Backbone:
């Protein structure tokens, strides 16, 4: 009898444990999964979200495979100094290329943006100078169209590149003067880049409407110079990041 | 005996019919799901979205593990040699500059909220440009890290950063020297002042120890090559 | 002793449950239905222990088999495009209410009869 009682207590205790455990796991799952966004979506939005997640998954998967490949290479060559150094060199080269520290080439487009004028109602010509915002927007449009490297009058556009007006005639890119006409080079899929700028009411249309001149030319090979910091502010470095 | 046989045959037949029906139904459903353009109700779509999101989450956490693993391997592999060690350090710095790591530092946080006027994509683009001009070292908007390929676009009335939808209020975090950033952004005639004038709610604060997320996408380079 | 076991089981369950990673959301539907099934067995167990015919084997087997069966049925329903889990919920929750009703009635009757006795006692003393 005493033994039976013990068994009973232990089994019931275990059952309580399992039940409460699963209940709490369920609570946490429901609480932490943010489906409120999805819950309110309509069919078209859902389809969009679906293709977005699929794409993100594929990108992540591709990168995962890439990383695993690298892991394999490193672990195979753990003993070999020169091969390790070669692998590092390769990775470093790629990272520096994306950062903008090397000259790069590839297919792309060349855009020339220049000052123009608008004829007003009274017949006067109103000068329309290219301003920094025109170039900022252009850079954004180019990145949206998948440009991998961009330069403005041979000033390489990197992540922290700023484009600001100085007076009426100069624009500063990376704190360096550039002036009219502005030649913007971008490497990427040339037909896509060209059509992205040329769509109706797109960048070219907007610039033309404001009286400024834009020409876009697709090129098989474009060379873009590396980033060169002339001032301390523009050096690619972190001064205010704290190490963790 | 005869009766037993009859029962067995009947049972067998019924089982056959039941399983056949189940298999047919399962196959039909499977086909209906894979056919493109089939009218699917929203609930199915929702499930599908969740499923892909989960798949992405799993892959992404695997990716993070693999990246840590790779970093350790690199470190181990280059530990014994000065030149490789130096390269490994350089690579780490490069990855930080590319936005592939989480960063902490002092800086400012700008919160922009729709007021009597709505915030447009250009507003964010110009604010970001001003931050860069003021020497910001890392920027994120609503948790989306800005890297060299980042763009801000709009699709109907939603704003996308790196292809991810974000909505008002927009929280722009920037690491840099706080006073410089604050002074530059809040100056008279600055873009934030213009936004405030047209009726957008702007709040700027100097904040210590801002944490800026790493970029959770992939920086592609298919078309460019290093000039040898 | 049984009560101590229940309390310990529940406390440890909460602690561990708080610290386990969450499961994929699409799986949580199955977990939910199995929780309902398990809860149903628990109330059934309480009810039968009140009636005095509690059997540990039946209770334990019901707890697990019902949970697993309900998951399988839900899965089958998903494949067949029928919301079987709705039926399972109706049955389980219906039974839970029945059992709860029995338990409630049992305790209320106990309470009332005790009260009656006390009243009788005080009345007798008063007289």
Residues:
């Amino acid at each position: 009898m005493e033994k039976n009682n013990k068994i009973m207590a232990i089994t019931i205790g275990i059952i309580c444990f399992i039940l409460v455990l699963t209940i709490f796991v369920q609570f946490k799952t429901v609480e932490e999964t943010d489906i409120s966004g999805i819950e309110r979506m309509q069919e078209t939005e859902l389809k969009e979200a679906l293709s977005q997640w699929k794409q993100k998954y594929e990108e992540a998967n591709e990168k995962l495979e890439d990383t695993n490949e690298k892991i394999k290479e490193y672990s195979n060559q753990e003993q070999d100094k020169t091969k390790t150094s070669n692998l590092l060199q390769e990775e470093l080269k790629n990272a520096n290329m994306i950062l903008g520290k090397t000259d790069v080439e590839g297919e792309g487009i060349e855009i020339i943006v220049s000052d123009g004028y608008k004829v007003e109602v009274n017949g006067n010509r109103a000068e329309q100078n290219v301003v920094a915002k025109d170039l900022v927007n252009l850079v954004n449009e180019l990145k949206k169209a998948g440009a991998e490297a961009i330069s403005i009058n041979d000033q390489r556009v990197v992540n922290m590149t700023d484009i600001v007006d100085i007076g009426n005639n100069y624009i500063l890119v990376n704190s360096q003067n550039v002036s009219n006409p502005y030649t913007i080079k971008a490497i990427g899929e040339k037909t896509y880049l060209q059509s992205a700028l040329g769509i109706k009411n797109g960048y070219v249309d907007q610039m033309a409407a404001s009286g400024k001149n834009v020409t876009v030319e697709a090129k098989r090979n474009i060379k873009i110079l590396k980033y060169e910091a002339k001032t301390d502010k523009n050096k690619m470095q972190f001064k205010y990041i704290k190490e963790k | 005996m005869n009766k037993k046989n009859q029962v067995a045959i009947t049972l067998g037949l019924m089982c056959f019919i039941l399983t056949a029906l189940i298999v047919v139904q399962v196959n039909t459903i499977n086909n209906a799901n894979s056919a493109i353009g089939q009218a699917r109700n929203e609930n199915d779509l929702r499930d599908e979205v969740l499923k892909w999101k989960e798949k992405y989450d799993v892959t992404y956490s695997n990716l993070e593990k693999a990246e840590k693993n790779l970093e350790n391997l690199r470190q181990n592999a280059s530990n014994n040699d000065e030149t490789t060690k130096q390269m490994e350090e350089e690579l780490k710095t490069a990855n930080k500059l590319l936005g592939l790591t989480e960063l902490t530092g002092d800086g400012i946080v700008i919160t922009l909220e729709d007021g009597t006027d709505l915030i447009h994509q250009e507003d964010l683009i110009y604010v970001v440009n001003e931050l860069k001009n003021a020497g910001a070292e890392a920027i994120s908007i609503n948790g989306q890290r800005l890297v060299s390929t980042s763009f801000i676009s709009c699709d109907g009335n939603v704003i996308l950063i790196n292809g991810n939808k974000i909505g008002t209020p927009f929280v722009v975090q920037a690491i840099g020297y706080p006073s410089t950033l604050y002074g530059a952004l809040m100056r008279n005639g600055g873009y934030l002042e213009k936004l405030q004038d047209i009726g957008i709610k702007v709040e700027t604060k100097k904040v210590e120890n801002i944490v800026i997320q790493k970029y959770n996408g992939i920086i592609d380079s298919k078309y460019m090559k290093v000039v040898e | 002793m049984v009560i101590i076991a229940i309390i310990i089981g529940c406390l440890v369950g909460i602690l561990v449950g708080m610290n386990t990673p969450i499961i994929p959301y699409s799986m949580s539907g199955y977990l939910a239905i199995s929780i309902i099934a398990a809860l149903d067995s628990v109330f059934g167990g309480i009810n039968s222990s009140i009636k005095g015919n509690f059997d540990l084997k039946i209770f334990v087997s019901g707890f697990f088999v019902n949970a697993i069966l309900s998951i399988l049925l839900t899965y089958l329903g998903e494949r067949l495009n029928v919301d079987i889990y709705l039926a399972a919920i109706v049955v389980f929750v219906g039974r839970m209410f029945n059992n709860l009703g029995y338990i409630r009635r049992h305790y209320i009757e106990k309470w009332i009869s005790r009260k009656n006795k006390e009243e009788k006692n005080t009345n007798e003393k008063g007289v």
